[in-house]
Amino acid sequence: MIIDWIIYGLIVWGVAGVLNHSVFKSKPASKGIAWTLTILMFFISVVALSAAKFFRYQMISEEIGVSINPSNPLDMGGAFVFSWLFYGFLNKVQKNTD
Hints:
There is one protein chain. By secondary structure, the protein is an all-alpha fold. It has one domain (2-89). It is 69% helix and 0% strand. The protein has 3 helices and no strands.
């Protein structure tokens, strides 16, 4: 599971980096766009991390010959963490402190 998180974290960091160097290079993302992309990233993360968990359990079940299933198939905690990191990595418009 930790390997999945490390690999997925690098993917999230890469996606944010590509967005920062292409779409948001000249003009940073507004707060609305950043939140919209973060919410989208949350749903993508739920699907991706849950699929990784499901396939990992399936592979382990086949190797040991006993059917095991995760107690909670959705990885909501991981999705929240990676969405939060994605939001942090995005190049956003800074708040005026004047």
